[in-house]
Amino acid sequence: MECNVWNEKGLLHLSGELESMHDREFLRHVEACSICKAELDACIKEEKAFFTTDMLGVEPSTAIDEEILRVCSRGIQPIVSTASPFSFARKILVAVVLLVIGFGGGTYFVSVKMASQSTRGDLPTAMDKRTDAQTASVATTERAPAAALDTNEESASLDSLPQGGKKKGNLSLQGVYPVDLNDNE
Amino acid sequence: MENFDVDTKEDSRLFDTWVKGDPKAFEIIYTKYRKRIFGFLIKMTSDKGLAEDLLQETFFAALRNAHQFDRNRSLLSWFFGIAHKKTIDHFRHVKVENDHQLEARKSIGSKIDTPDIDTSNKHLREIINEAVQSLDPLQREVFLLRELGGVAFKDIAAMMNCPINTALGRMRLALKNIRKELEKRGVHGV
């Protein structure tokens, strides 16, 4: 059997959370209620005999004890700066010097590399570009007849040449062939 | 919870001394509460190694957040609040709470070493711990917070994010189920 008063107030009484007026009311009720009295007695005895540190508590290992004591015993350590103003200025100076050396060295290295490449001919110069242009135009002229030759399927056949006519070379080129000024046909 | 000198003022004094760097003050606090906190952690996790890690984290967190401690409150309750949060965070991260519950039922008492208890009490201790481990996880949580940590029910309700009546209900059921288990094993009342 259960008592609603125990359900509402019993455990709060045991934990000391009831306000004093409600606590006094509860104790008056317990005197008159056998259910609440039995329940209260049982809880008090169980707490003393069963629900103790010895019964429910567990020892951690020695190693973990030592570690926690080692780290936490010191409390909160304040952060104290030991650097002087001069050391800060020195650090800035060193940083600037390193920056200048790094920048200067890098620039020198790049310029040396570029000079050596131009000496070997790796880099295109103005003269090279003009020569390239001339080469390119000659290549274009030679390439065009070759391109026409490749694409014209009928050009390779001698049968397609006009009968009895002078052969205009070995090739029948589409509109492009050596002109024979003495051709009387 | 047993009355064993939970002196709030003395604890606050020791706490302040500790935070300022007195190793002796911390040693007193640690020696006083370590078994309870570790008992809570090992019963919540059923894993001694994990419980030791969480024990470390609890005290490290307490040191880091010393400024948040309300000197009018119980120091033990505060430690338990941190330990509870660490445990919940761990399970949330690992997401194996159900597996741990199953393991708790399988390995009841097997990982809990009790070299400090004399033989006569050892059997009773095992029975009590088995009864506690057999509880529903939520009931076990409320029970341990209350009995080991002395945490007030209103604080338990806040920690578990439930109404105070729910916390009270879980505690009533926990006590009822523990008594049933004790009776099954031949421990009839006190």
Q: What is the compact description of this entry?
A:
The complex is a heterodimer of chains A (185) and B (190). Chain A has 185 residues and is mainly α. Chain A has helices spanning 4-15, 20-32, 34-49, 53-56, 62-72, 85-120, 126-151.
Your description of this structure?
- The complex is a heterodimer of chains A (185) and B (190).
- With 185 residues, chain A is mainly α.
- Helix content of chain A is 64%, strand content 0%.
- Chain A is built from seven helices and no strands.
- In chain A, helix 1 crosses helix 2.
- Chain A is rod-shaped, with a radius of gyration of 54 Å.
- Chain B has helices at residues 8-19, 23-45, 48-64, 75-94, 97-106, 119-133, 137-147, 153-160, 164-184.
- In chain B, helix 3 (48-64) crosses helix 4 (75-94).
- Chain B is globular.
- The model of chain B is unreliable at 108-117 (pLDDT under 50).
- Chain B is mainly alpha-helical.
- Chains A and B meet through helix 1, helix 3, helix 4 and helix 5 of A and helix 2, helix 3, helix 6, helix 7 and helix 9 of B.
